[in-house]
Specification:
Chain lengths: ~220, ~220
């Protein structure tokens, strides 16, 4: 556990120091949403209809850009070798990297999204739904992205391969994430879409460290 | 009793045969120097021996104090590796890098016990490698030689000095004074019967108990 915390703290510290790299993905997300009224030419109704879908799509794009070199930098500068030699399980390394990228990239998106949606006069209930669905859905996207990032570690054209391999696995998260955001809470019961999203998250949490660990192991064969 | 018994090791990397059917035994209290031209497979052999790469064929047996080490996890406890790359983070200061690696090496210990020894260990390492004035400087602002010194200082970090050091051209970018400090480290390390250093280098290392392999 202390290893996991040590690795995460170090990653966050590095990311905060390299402000340009960490902020750019968040700025991309914010500006993309802010220019939406220009694209829809002020038609509020059409904009509101597509807004949540666009939020999810932009979140996916931001995560894909962020996980692209998740292991690459540590692999190239020899830090990954050092962590491996120190005897830390590859599963722990995988989990620490995935958690770091979620904290650095997704947490600001989860917090900012409802605030940005306030600008478009969305119902409060929907803002809560967007917050909750992103909170459940983004770890899934990060873990899936991290698996492929580990698989293509060392390949020169990693990013294009990542998008191709992971695209089918992202689609259920997008579908149920958007549906959950649009769903209504009846008699304090969470909707079916939320339940499916939580189920998907639990499966991915259970399976991804082992798959990610195996993918990293390929580099040490 | 030998540390390593290497049998018929071959290595192919990217369709290129680097070496074929290598056989040798390595004993403790020694420096094993791997020499060879560029691209001859020195780094690959080093990585194979320390467990970062698997050989294309052949087997390696490892013993420590007469006990056969069976699992990779058990083996890695005794191993330290300094590669071609310095493996230090440019965005972090020298002190932050040292603390990061210190904690990695104390992985199963109580964090409260770490704090008490951390200061002492970092102080020893920084004095040994003349890093006192560099502690609060970001690594990206250091010279190549200073970065190498920080990288080599990892060998003395943590609760114990590891039994086997794998070093890939460790004297790269070091000036005469710091090469001398490093040579003394090597002599100290190879003075113990249960320790071994395996390194690649183009330089001639003047040390008594040395064996050279040329690829």
């Amino acid at each position: 556990m202390s290893n996991l915390v040590n690795l995460i703290i170090s990653d966050i510290k590095i990311s905060l120091r390299k402000k340009n790299e960490s902020i750019i993905s968040i700025l991309f997300f914010i500006f993309s949403i802010l220019i939406l009224p220009l694209i829809f030419q002020g038609d509020q109704n059409i904009l509101k209809e597509f807004l949540i879908g666009i939020i999810w799509f932009l979140t996916l794009l931001t995560i894909i850009f962020s996980v692209e070199k998740l292991f690459e930098n540590d692999y190239e500068d020899g830090v990954l070798d050092q962590i491996y030699i120190s005897g830390i399980p590859l599963e722990t390394i995988f989990l620490s990297k995935s958690l770091s990228i979620w904290i650095i990239t997704c947490l600001p998106i989860i917090i900012l999204s409802p605030l940005l949606l306030l600008l478009f006069n969305l119902q409060t209930e929907k803002l809560v739904n967007v917050f909750m669905s992103l909170l459940i859905g983004t770890p899934i996207l990060c873990l899936i992205g991290a698996i492929t990032s580990a698989l293509v570690l060392g390949f020169n054209k990693g990013s294009s391969i990542i998008s191709l391999i992971t695209l089918p696995l992202y689609i259920p998260v997008l579908i149920f994430g958007i549906e959950a955001s649009n769903s209504e809470i009846i008699f304090n019961q969470i909707s079916q879409e939320f339940k499916i999203l939580i189920g998907y998250l639990l499966i991915v949490i259970a399976v991804s460290p082992w798959i990610g660990g195996l993918a990293l192991k390929l580099k040490y064969r | 009793m030998s540390f390593f018994e290497i049998k018929n090791i071959s290595c192919i990397r990217g369709n290129k045969l680097l070496f074929k059917n290598l056989n040798f035994k390595v004993f403790g209290r020694k420096l094993l120097l791997i020499k060879g031209a560029n691209g001859s497979g020195k780094t690959s052999l080093l990585k194979i021996l320390c467990g970062l790469l698997k050989p294309t064929s052949g087997s390696i047996k490892f013993n420590l104090n007469g006990k056969k080490i069976k699992s990779k996890e058990e083996y890695l406890i005794h191993v330290d590796y300094i590669g071609h790359e310095n493996a230090i983070k440019g965005a972090l200061t020298v002190k932050e890098n040292l603390i990061f690696y210190y904690k990695l090496r104390w992985k199963d210990k109580d964090p409260r016990s770490i704090k008490s020894d951390l200061k002492q260990n970092i102080q020893f390492v920084t004095e040994h490698f003349n890093l006192q004035n560099l502690l609060d400087i970001k690594v990206e602002n250091l010279s190549s030689g200073e970065k190498r010194r920080v990288s080599l200082s990892k060998l003395y970090l943590g609760p114990v000095i590891k039994s086997i050091w794998f070093l890939d051209e460790p004297t790269n970018n070091l000036d005469k004074k710091n090469s001398g400090i490093f040579l003394k480290m090597l002599k100290d390390h190879t003075a113990y019967h249960d320790r071994l250093t395996i390194m690649t280098s183009h330089d001639d290392i003047k040390i008594k108990n040395k064996t050279t392999i040329t690829l």
